[in-house]
Amino acid sequence: MASLKEIRAKVTSIKSTQKITRAMQMVAASKMRRAQERMEVGRPYADSMRRVISHLVHASSDYKHPYMVTRSVDRVGYIVITSDRGLAGGLNINLFKALSKSIQQYQDQSVQAEFAVIGAKGVSFFKNFGGKVTSAVTDYGDKPTFEQINAPVQAMLDDYTNGKIDRIYVVYNKFVNAMTQKPTVNQLVPLPEDSFGEEESGIQTELSWDYIYEPDIKTLIDELLGRYIESIVYQAVMENIASEQSSRMVAMKAATDNAGDLINDLQLVYNKLRQAAITREISEIVGGAAAVS
User: Fold this and answer.
1) Which among 142, 160, 252, 286 could disulfide-bond with 25, CB atoms 3.0 to 4.6 Å apart, if both were Cys?
2) 262-273 core/surface letters (b: 16 or more CB in 10 A; e: else)
3) Residue 107 pLDDT > 50, yes or no?
4) Interhelix angle for 217-292 vs 91-107, to 10°?
5) What is the CATH classification number for the domain harbouring 191?
6) Measured between alpha carbons, how far is 191 from 55 in angstroms, rounded to an integer?
């Protein structure tokens, strides 16, 4: 059994660790709130972009952008968004499980996959478990600009345009609330058929309006669809950041609570040992006094 000195040293060490985990919990909570605000600010932009594109699509039914044309699938691409750092519970592990499940479904059909990675944890995962990574970005921080994460996205879109891949998915952790993050695998390109449906865009057939588009509808669709897809990926990155911070906050709270429980258990053992030592000393004193008398 450990000595009193060893137990005191353990308690001191755990208390020091507990201070760190409590500080990390508070920092993560603050970062989560800021990330959540940035995430919510970006949603109206994507919604407005979708409505504008929906008007254009319905006004020009004879033109189909390549991003809206479904073709047979021989190769798929995944834009995988992970965190740069750990200590976030099972956030990344759960995401990799969802990704692996999607990959397996295509492998069963003899469809190959390639990956564009955003986040150091994703790079580490594919380095250990294999997979063709065409582009990767790490160290994007808590407030990334789109320019920081653009390279993997553009690499995937270029491969799709050139016919090297036939479908693109974006994989990320969707922020539900402070306690819940949902691993998500969404089809990015070709855009799902209901992306610009009338109900989705708020357009009512019986109240249709005529617009004059400049320079022309085709040019506008080509330009706006690219920006719309960029906004989807950027929003996914912001959702993943909020999920990372919320998961880290929960993990650090659990670590802090566990440290408290461990300290209490050690303190109880310490008190019992100390009580036993005092009792033994008293017994020795009494025994010695009895022997002298």
Assistant:
1) 252
2) ebeebeebbeee
3) yes
4) 130
5) 3.40.1380.10
6) 16
Pair 120, 85: CB distance under 8 Å? yes
Same-domain status, 213 and 265: no
User: CA geometry: angle at 124 spanning 144 and 22, to 5°?
Assistant: 65
User: Which tens digits make up the pLDDT trace of 74-97?
Assistant: 999 999 999 999 989 899 999 999
Question: Quick check: is 170 in a domain?
Answer: yes
pLDDT digits (tens, 9 = 90+) for 218-275: 888 888 888 888 889 999 999 999 999 999 999 999 999 999 999 999 999 989 888 8
Give the tokens for residue 27.
Answer: 């920092």
Do residues 58 and 157 share a domain?
A: yes
Is the residue at 33 inside a domain? no
Residue 36 falls within a domain, yes or no? no
Quick one: pLDDT at residue 157? 92
258 and 133 inside one domain: no
